[in-house]
Amino acid sequence: MIDISAAYAKYLAETSDAPRPQARAAAEVPSELGAFIEEGDGALAGARAALDHLRDNTADQRGVDGEQIVFPLEDVQLHAPVTDRARIFCALANFAAHMQSAAENTQDPEREATIQRLVAGGPKYFLKDSRAVSAHGEQVRYPARTERLDYEAEIAAVVGRRGRDIAADDFEPYIWGYTLFNDWSVRDNVSFGPDFAYSKNFDTSATVGPWIVVDEGLEPQDIPVECRINGEVRQSGNTSSMIHTFAALGEYLSRDTTLWPGDLIASGTPKGTAVDSTKEQADGSHPDALFIKPGDVVEVSSSAIGVIRNEVVKPDN
């Protein structure tokens, strides 16, 4: 783990006559995520130059003032890579197999019809509160109001450029990178009406991380994602199965609305959640065997990105 702004200051100090390398580094390769994304290609180029210099062309790996700037990953507490002003747009009903399985498992004809309507037509979404995010390694708080907590393994695209009314064919350059996302969800008495967001928003309800993969040649519609509960694989999918692609979602979300650097667009989730794998009983109840319980460890992973891992704890913790 490298302090990239400090590494860039070292690069400037050792390869140029910059009189104030640290001040210049703070402007050109900012240490704050939102500012770094907004700096665009210049910040990425500076970061690459600093990394190359640190690896190949310097006598030591310490900062301008001799400070430590390279740290073992296991010694670092990662924060969720979400900017202060980010909005988290979450695609709803965006994997057909997930929704079909949920429809087949319900005993309520009206609910089944509602699920089918959600799949039909154009994109649909809801918002997660970015202040409710949790990071890789952080404990996730089991909401006191639920007896059926669910997981949803997803890929999220991070917006890198400001834009509005963006055509789908033009959207890919607006994607800065990709990260993992766990859309924790309360499944008790879920309504698809105006209060739907209540089942999606609570403290720690959006795990994001462990980092953002940038400029690694990822194909947006070919990113694998899995979920394991206590080591058992529950979900195994790919963004190739999204009903509405990231580009289609970007076009839809940017209509009359400016997307900003740092905004996240989450893919929706593939089949294998507790709710789409559990048969609703005749009385409307759900066996709880597959739902999350305090003490469970949940991992969302992708071979293209990494792993986010969280232990779920009782709400009084």
UniProtKB/TrEMBL annotation:
Organism expressing this protein natively: Streptomyces incanus
Chain segments annotated as coiled-coil in the UniProt record: none
Entry protein name: Fumarylacetoacetate hydrolase family protein
Record's keyword terms, sorted: Hydrolase, Metal-binding
Entry similarity comment: Belongs to the FAH family.
All residue ranges annotated as the Fumarylacetoacetase-like C-terminal domain in the record: 88-313
SUPFAM superfamilies: FAH
Keyword Hydrolase in record: yes
One Pfam entry name: FAA_hydrolase
One Gene Ontology term of the molecular function aspect: hydrolase activity
